[in-house]
Design goal:
With 309 residues, the chain is of the alpha/beta class. The chain contains seven helices and 14 strands. The strands form three sheets. The chain has a six-stranded mixed beta sheet with strand order 1-14-2-3-4-5, covered by helices on one side. The longest helix is centred in the N-terminal third of the chain and has 19 residues.
Length: 309
């Protein structure tokens, strides 16, 4: 009897190649996405907003540091950092070195859970289980026990010293050339630190444009921002699904937003109000799951343009 090994060996080789690519190549294939969003008042000049998110810096990631530094050559009008900067408590100096050139520009930030707490080794299948049960982060799950606390205070102090607006359950105001910009932010809903009642009330009527910023795009936050009339919401957290199936998309989002909106520009509607939503796929990953597939690490340059009259 002749035993045929061709097909099983071919499948195994293909699988090994995919794993090698997902771990060794794509996580370092950084890219810049460019999109336009029509949210400015008619007649205003376009604004270039650079969003960076989910850096998850680990000591020794020199290529990521150089790529982040290179983004300053875009000369954005504004930088918005939507959190999860760390995946290593020793990496704060390297993170600040990576972001140093961008901190020369006007900016704003919110934090994510991995700014406060270090990552933990966990079974990746739990993300699918949490999706099926509707229990994500601390939203319905028991509080974290024995979590590593990251040194987030020096990072906050450096951002503040650069002039970036801290939007941790807070409002901020930034005056750009030709635009008076108001921003409203929340602390991370993934670990129940969001306090919308502290910032409720909708866009600032005296500003040319008001933006909303949050790390994890949980529906309660999106509903609140949209219902209050914000035209654009910026978020991160999902990693775009991190492992996507070509032709299908993301399997999970690690929050309660649907997988169709795991990355990129979409809309969110509450009653008769609609907001644009941009979810960054981020440029890093948890140090214990450093893989990406069909979801390259990214930053996004959003060109805000005048809306139609």
């Amino acid at each position: 009897m002749r035993v045929r090994y061709g097909v099983p060996l071919g499948v195994a080789a293909f699988g090994a190649a995919c794993v090698g690519y997902a771990v060794g190549i794509e996580p370092r294939a950084f890219r810049l996405r460019r999109i336009s969003v029509p949210v400015l008042p008619p007649g205003m000049r376009p604004l270039r907003l650079l969003q960076v998110s989910d850096i998850h810096m680990v000591s020794g990631q020199r290529r990521k540091r150089r790529w982040l530094q290179s983004l300053a050559a875009l000369h954005p009008d504004l930088v918005v950092n939507t959190g999860d900067n760390l995946s290593d408590p020793e990496a704060v100096p390297e993170l600040l070195d990576a972001l140093g050139p961008l901190m020369a520009y006007p900016g704003a930030y919110v934090f994510g859970s991995n700014d406060y707490y270090g990552p933990r080794l966990r079974n990746p299948a739990r993300y699918l289980m949490e999706k099926a049960s509707g229990r994500h982060g601390l939203n319905g799950n028991p509080p974290a026990v024995g979590a590593v606390h990251n040194p987030w205070e020096p990072m906050r102090d450096a951002f503040d010293a650069s002039g970036w607006a801290d939007l941790t359950n807070a409002r901020g105001r930034i005056k750009l050339e030709g635009c008076d910009l108001a921003l409203t932010g929340l602390d991370d809903p993934h670990i129940k630190r969001d306090r919308y009642h502290q910032v409720a009330g909708g866009p600032d009527p005296g500003a040319d444009l008001s933006l909303a910023v949050v790390h994890a795009p949980y529906l309660r936050s999106l509903d609140a921002f949209t219902g209050d009339g914000y035209p654009l919401i910026l978020a991160g957290h999902t990693h775009g699904g991190q492992l996507r199936i070509p032709g299908y998309g993301a399997l999970v989002t690690n929050c309660d937003i649907d997988t169709a909106r795991a990355r990129g520009l979409s809309t969110h509607t509450v009653d008769d109000r609609r907001a644009y939503l941009h979810v960054s796929a981020g440029c890093g990953a948890n140090r214990y799951t450093p893989a990406r597939f069909a979801c390259p690490p990214e930053a996004t340059l959003l060109t805000l343009t005048p809306r139609s009259r």
